[in-house]
Amino acid sequence: MRYIIVFITLSVLLFSAKVTNNFWQKGLDFETYLQKHNISKDVINLLDKDDAQLIDEISSKRRFYEMVASNGVLLQTLIPIGEELQLHLFRTPHGYKVEILPVSYQKDTYVALMSIDKSPYYDIIKKVKNKKLANEFTKVMKHSVNFRSVQRGDRLAIVYDQKMRLGQPIGIPDIKVAMIESQHKKHYVFKHTDGKYYDENGQELIKKYMGKPLRHIRITSPFTNRRWHPVLHRYKAHLGTDFGARRGTPILAAADGKVIFSGWMRGYGKVIKIKHDDGYVTLYAHQSRRKVKVGQTVKKGQIIGFVGSTGRSTGPHLHFGLYKNGRAINPMRMVKFSSKGLHGIGKRAFLRRKMRYTKIINKIFDENRPSYVWNTVQERQVSPKMKKYYKRIGW
Ligand SMILES: [Zn+2]
């Protein structure tokens, strides 16, 4: 809540200051933004390598907030970084500073249970008012049940985790288990600890995966939306997966696509970005040499460049990022690293998890409890005065 307090306090002190919000302009880099406001780029040069890489994550698809004094001087800026952090640029008596702040949210488990009137997708949007939940549900469930056979009066249940901020859902809902009963048969999907979805027999449901970006992979740093650094005493994020590899190791396109960026980024060094189907983009950073140009189409497995240590990096490695509609997601969710599927200990762990979640969702289904609709419950927690304030500043 710290950033809100900062904003409110300043709003009171400086009557003439104005908070505005806008989408980050496409192609605008943070250095140019600083120049525009006559701020020295030292504020970036002083950042450590992790924070410098986060600056490269500023995306044109996100809304950012500015507070400007009546004389035109920028007082502060908040720019979202990934799902759970934001970059805070602010003016102090000793010049401007940059820090990475957490976005406050609460995460709760919700249940949606409903009888279908029109289609699962339509009904989830109408009854739960969460389009991303409808998208996720359809995406995972379509492999388990034929939606055309779903009829009016069939029922569905979903147990999911949702991050909430100021009464609004943020990010993609995390479906733990979902079920649809159609023609007296129950169809389930379960999310396993590996982040992938399986049916009741332990078969993977999403078969269209991306390939590995290196022939041999060794993870040196995993993806994380936000973690607390106990020594530095602040929040950090790593919006990709790092793979250790020797300098010069060929980098492979994870899927068919078109090159949309091939150039230099301050934190990520020599970078290639590839756009794929369904709103996915992959990013390959710290390259020693790039091999493809913007506009070029590439095939899955094609060599697009070579491992290096350019940008803010401590040694040769590949930083591999995956984005869905402009948001960084964990690449491990979409890349197939082994063809073995579940077996042995992994399979037994899945079966235990499946049993637990089957019990939970069947109980919800049998009791026929009304669904937990987020917007009617959460709105009460935000006072009308605060709500007006959030509305005014565009939240
Ligand atoms: Zn990295």
Class inferred from helices and paired strands: alpha+beta
Radius of gyration: 23 Å
CATH topology of the largest domain: Nuclear Transport Factor 2, Chain: A
Distance between the termini: 14 Å
The share of residues in helices is 10-25%
Query: Based on the structure given, which CATH architecture of the largest domain is correct?
Result: Roll
Q: What is the strand content? A: 35-45%
What is the number of helices? 9
Number of structurally distinct domains:
3
Please state the average pLDDT score: 86
Major sheet characteristics: 10 strands, antiparallel
Supply the CATH class of the largest domain: Alpha Beta
What small molecules are bound in this structure?
Answer: zinc ion
Oligomer: single chain
What's the shape?
globular
The beta-strand count equals: 22
Low-pLDDT regions: 373-381
